[in-house]
Specification:
- The structure is a single chain.
- This protein is α+β, with helices and mostly antiparallel strands and about 675 residues long.
- Helices cover about 30% and strands about 30% of the residues.
- The protein contains 16 helices and 35 strands.
- It is globular, with a radius of gyration of 26 Å.
């Protein structure tokens, strides 16, 4: 029988969860990431687990494209656009990121001006050809490209979402030119056939810059795995999986690959517990991702990665530089700061014993006794408490004054309080600032560090219910196992809703659905005989706005009359008013999903004998119970304060909180 391996490559750790379809059991593992060669950590983990790769299907969340964008790396790329528009990517929207900064530092452009090439082609807003490319134009273009020696090309012409023939001419000319035929080509009418040339251009450009890097990495990974075609799938930012070939072609769709897996995992485990409204926070070693799920995972096309707009569908979340490896420091004014700089995997927190000297959130938890050195990663990576104490003591000394000394415990608690405050602000952005009452939701914590902070965050948000999922430390990898194969397609039409021909709209939707299904068929994810199967789900939505507006709202397509009513209501819900104005259809969107049938969460079973120890902690009068999570039975209840320890994470159950184990092993926390 088949085995499925979810692999999430994070900034500090690479997480693994293996699902055996025959026995319906899971096996989990963690190794330190290898940022310079991510495939090495993956192969090390597979070797540690003793898995035979010949019968293995791997679903992988990759950070290769993400890191390249965040670090400003990428291959030498040429941007091809219309005459007079070479500076669009540099000019952007002329919006200042730091409005009140008197000395703002402008980010360097994504591409240098001498790498922007203009062509004398023009299509009108009504899709009329005003000037078409000639053979001489294309010959001159290929000569110019040859002189620039790019590794990738991004093509973005005005209104190509209406008519892509000119972009196709350029692509074909490059492919037919001997010295250029092997370069990576990213075409806007293929990557993002939507209006707004700046966002479309940036998305197409990012796709080109990281494309060769992603393709090279996936080739190395496939060679290392010895995989056959179809046995390696990649997690997309939209929460669905795609083939390795498609991932290499559209790496811009992978920029939130890991976090999307986390949200899918949170939705899966919470759903088993009957929870469909949740606030999630995924706290790893480098960052924390916060999101809200109200029955369905929300998607957005307005995300920014590394300060660059990326207009492809992504899970809607807010990310901050606060994780277990976030570095604590005291500034010149005596203020304690935590993050966004992280110690990463190398050297890592001081307690890792790999040469790190700066105090981190993980070191603070070790000093406070909430992270037990002997049980970290199931005892496979003992922590150095004396190194953690030395690092946190340096923070205490920096905070101390002659009249007001600060103890090491106070400094450690201060580090925890500061990082918690960062996460509370992120949770408020995703809930309160969107008009949602956190009390109506359950706080779901995951990631290796999430369980240590869940009670404090819930109290700050005035939430009485929380959930620490089974295998919380590897939940993103679990989400990849549970994720469905999906394809998203869109098309801009820009028409008055009342003037739209309904048959034409339905035909356009059908055309987009067929495109998406065809991609699933071609890449062996969706088979022809499943066309009538109820495992295939199709979702059609529409972007609409009042005529004259710049931004649109996304609604489920349910006929013209229903869309009009729904838009007025949603506009009022979002902005507090609606207008008696005509409505414009901007984009049509479809999402085709193949529902996964094989993965199911196994019922919880006691794996070891329940062991209970007691320790003391600074500033807590009661003895603290230490309980191994693997020995808890379904329905078993624990009163805080207590530490619930497992191989991949630790949960700090604060005083006044009650924990109960549900049928799949989740810890349901309630405030007394």
């Amino acid at each position: 029988m088949a085995k499925f391996l979810g692999v999430d490559t994070g900034g500090t750790f690479t997480d693994f969860i293996l699902f055996d379809d025959a026995s319906k059991t899971v096996q989990i593992h963690k190794v330190l990431s290898s940022p310079q060669a991510p495939e090495k950590a993956i192969m090390q983990g597979i070797s540690d687990m003793g898995v035979d790769t010949s019968s293995l299907t791997v679903i992988h969340g990759s950070t290769v494209a993400t890191n390249a964008v965040l670090e400003g790396k990428g291959v030498r790329t040429v941007y091809i656009t219309n005459k007079g528009l070479a500076d669009v990517l540099s000019i952007g929207r002329q919006a200042r990121e730091e409005l009140y900064n008197l000395t703002p530092i402008k980010k360097p452009p994504l591409i240098e001006r001498d790498m922007c090439v203009e062509v004398d082609s023009r299509l009108s807003a009504q899709a009329e050809h005003l000037r078409q490319l000639t053979e001489d134009d294309l010959t001159a273009l290929t000569k110019e490209l040859e002189a620039l020696s790019p590794q990738a090309v991004a093509i973005n012409l005005l209104f190509s979402f209406f008519d892509n023939s000119e972009e196709l001419k350029i692509e074909q000319a490059i492919l037919n030119h001997g010295s250029l035929k092997n370069i990576f080509i990213s075409r806007s009418s293929d990557v993002l056939p939507e209006y707004k040339e700046f966002e479309r251009g940036m998305t197409t450009m990012l796709n080109a810059k990281v494309g060769p890097l992603m393709q090279g990495y996936l080739k190395l990974l496939e060679q290392s795995l010895g995989s056959q075609s179809g046995l390696l799938s990649i997690m997309q930012s939209s929460g669905g999986t795609t083939s390795a070939e498609q991932a290499g072609r559209y790496p811009v769709n992978l920029l939130l690959s890991g976090p999307a897996g986390g949200l899918k995992g949170a939705q899966t485990v919470a759903g088993v517990s009957g929870i469909d409204q949740l606030l999630s926070f995924d706290m790893g070693g480098t960052s924390t991702d916060v999101s809200i799920i109200d029955k369905e995972i929300g998607l957005t096309t307005g995300a920014k990665i590394g300060g660059h707009p990326v207009a492809v569908p992504m899970v809607d979340m807010h990310t901050i530089g606060a994780g277990g490896g976030s570095i604590a420091q005291v500034d010149a004014g005596g203020r304690l700061l935590v993050g966004p700089e992280s110690a990463g995997a190398d050297p890592g927190p001081a307690c890792y014993g790999k040469g790190g000297k700066q105090a981190t959130v993980t070191d603070a938890n070790v000093v406070l006794g909430r992270l037990l050195p002997h049980s970290f990663l199931g005892g496979n990576m003992p922590l150095n408490k004396s190194a953690a104490s030395e690092a946190v003591q340096a923070i205490a000394d920096a905070l101390s004054t002659k009249d007001s000394p600060v103890s090491i415990e106070q400094a450690a608690q201060g580090i925890i309080d500061v990082v918690n405050d960062h996460m509370v602000r992120a949770l408020r952005i995703m809930s309160v600032e969107r008009g949602e009452d956190p009390k109506d939701f359950t706080l779901v914590s995951f990631g290796g560090a999430g369980g240590l902070h869940v009670c404090a965050l819930a109290e700050e948000m005035e939430m009485n219910n929380a959930l620490v999922p089974v295998n919380a430390g590897v939940l993103s990898a679990l989400g990849m196992l549970a994720a469905d194969a999906s394809r998203e397609r869109s098309r801009t039409i820009n028409k008055n809703l009342k003037q739209c021909d309904l048959n034409e709209l339905e035909n356009s939707f059908e055309s987009l659905v067929c495109q998406a299904k065809e991609e699933l068929i071609v890449h062996n994810i969706y088979s022809e005989n499943k066309k009538a199967s109820n495992t295939i789900k199709t979702y059609c939505t529409i972007d609409v706005r009042y005529i004259g507006q710049s931004h649109a709202l996304n609604l489920v397509w349910d006929g013209r009359d229903n869309v009009e009513k729904s838009f007025h209501k949603k506009h009022k819900d979002c902005y507090g008013h609606c207008l008696e104005m005509e409505i414009e259809v901007v984009n049509l969107r479809v999402r085709v999903i193949e529902k996964k049938q094989s993965f199911v969460l196994p019922k919880w079973a006691v794996e070891t004998e329940l062991k209970q120890e007691f320790i003391s902690m600074p500033n807590i009068k009661k003895n603290i119970s230490i309980i191994n999570r693997s020995g808890l039975e379904v329905g078993e209840k624990i009163n805080g304060p207590a530490l619930i320890v497992e191989a991949n994470s630790t949960t700090w159950l604060a005083e006044g909180w009650l924990s109960e184990v549900d049928e799949v092993g989740n810890l349901r926390l309630t405030k007394d």
